[in-house]
Design a protein that fits this description.
It is a single chain. The chain has 17 helices and four strands. The strands form two sheets. Strands 1-2 form a two-stranded parallel ribbon. Strands 3-4 form a two-stranded antiparallel ribbon. Helix 6 packs across helix 7 and helix 7 crosses helix 9. It is 70% helix and 3% strand. By secondary structure, the chain is mainly α. The chain has two domains: 202 residues, no CATH class; 143 residues, no CATH class.
Amino acid sequence: MSYISTIKIAMILFPILAFVITIPYMIANYRKYGSVNKLRTVIFYSFILYLLAAYLLVNLPLPDPETVHTTYTDKLNLVPFSFVADFFNDSPFVLTDPSTWIDSMKYPSFYVPAFNVLMLVPFGIYMRYYFKCSFKKTILLTALVSLFFELTQLSGLYFIYPGPYRLCDIDDIIQNTTGGALGYFIGQLAVWVLPSRDAIDEKSFEEGTHVSSIRVMLSLLIDAAIVYVPYSFLNTTIPVSVLFALYFALVPLINGKTLGSALLKFGVEFKDNKAFRTVLRGILITAYFNWIPLGLLTLMDVFNFEAETPEFLVLFAGTLLVFVLYFLIILIVTLFNRRFLFDRLTGAEYQSTIDRKA
C-alpha cells in the first residue's frame, strides 16, 4: 500500500471522526469562548486529519494475522543512529562525488528516514503556532507521539496480532523528533502569516458576548436529550411532550437557565413578567419543536392512509411540503443567526455568562 493510498483512507475516515467529535468540540468552545471561531475550527480539524493520516501511515497496511509469527525481540531495535550506517552501506553515496547524491536519494535507506523526519514536521508547526508550546515542550511532545507510534507497532496493534508486524525502532523516534524540531522553526512562518492564537482567542471572546442561534439550538438539543434519555427507560403513559413543556417552563424559573444553557454558559432574561414569560416560552418551545412537527406527521399519516383518492393525495403532498418548509425555516433561522419565534413572542433576551478569566 502506497503513502497516497493510506492518505486516501484517512480522507475517507475523517468525516466519520469529525462527525463524532463535532458536538464535544462545539460544547468545549462555547463553554470557554462563547463562540466557535471559523479559523480555529479549520486549524483544529486540519490537525485531527493530520494526526489520523500519520497514525494510519504508521500502522497500515495490516497483514494477515496468520502470517505474523514474530516475537517482540525480533521487531525491536534499541541501537541509536543505525540508519546512518545503513545509508552509507546500502546506497552508492560518496561525499566527495556529487554525482552520487541524487541517486542515493532513491534508496530506502535515505527516503524512509527522510519520510520519518517529514511526518512530524507538521506536528511541530501546530505545537508552535496554535498550541504556543516552547521548543523544549515541542521536542518532548513530539518524542511522546513518536513513542506512542512505536509502542503501537511493538504491541502488534494493541495485542490484536500475536506479535509485532513492524519494527519498533529507536531511530524512528530520533527521526520523528528531529522533524518536530524542524516544524517548530518552520512554524514561525505561520506565526508571521496567520492571525496569532491570542488574536483568535480575542475574536472568539468578542463573538461569544452575543449568544448565537446555533448556541441556542445546541443547548435545546442537549436539554431534549436530558429529558428524553431518562424518559425512554420509564414505563409511563405520560407523553414526552408534557415533560418537555414542564422542563422548559419550570427549570428556567430558578435562574433563567436550563441544564443545556448552563452547560453552554448563557441564560435567558425578560424585562418584565418573568414567571409568565418563562412558562409561556417553555410551552412555545415544546410546540415549536414537538407539537407542530408531530402534528404534521400525524396528518401525513392520515392522508397517506387515504391516498387512493386524488383529494387525499393532494392533501398529503401539501402537508409534506409544509413539513419540509417548516424544518427549512428552522435551519435558516439557526444558520443565519435569526431569533426564534418563541423568543420573539415572549421578548426573551440571552445573556452570555462566559468568564474570560476562567
